[in-house]
Amino acid sequence: MQWLKQPEMYQGKTVAELRERINLDFSPEGLGNETAIERAVEYFLKDSLAVHHPQCVAHLHCPSLVVSQAAEVMINATNQSMDSWDQSPSATIIEIKLDRVAAYPSGVPARRRRCLHQRRHPEAT
After folding, report:
1. Hey, CA dihedral for 10, 12, 18, 24, is it positive or negative?
2. What is the pTM of this model?
3. ∠ CA(125), CA(107), CA(98), 5° rounding?
4. What is residue 33's predicted lDDT score, i.e. its pLDDT?
């Protein structure tokens, strides 16, 4: 995708320029999938901050990995949620096991690691 190859971290448009440029047209007919994706690239990606850029210092999050993007696509396509046990039974167990692996070297006590998951389902821990 061309956006990934942009040399600048940000294209430098001002808020006023963005407001002027972005035109959302919600017609009953819609745009069609291809045009909708083209518009998303044009209005969103081109003027987004490229957090993957080597000169970008992560603010709240680091650049994502391809494997995590693929996982997000799978979650989105199947309409899953991590909000409650009934929406994520297997995902909750996977998260618990990953948390245990990640927390073990950090020294976080086991009782502290379990409190989040017990809110979902008491038998899931």
Report:
1. negative
2. 0.49
3. 40
4. 92
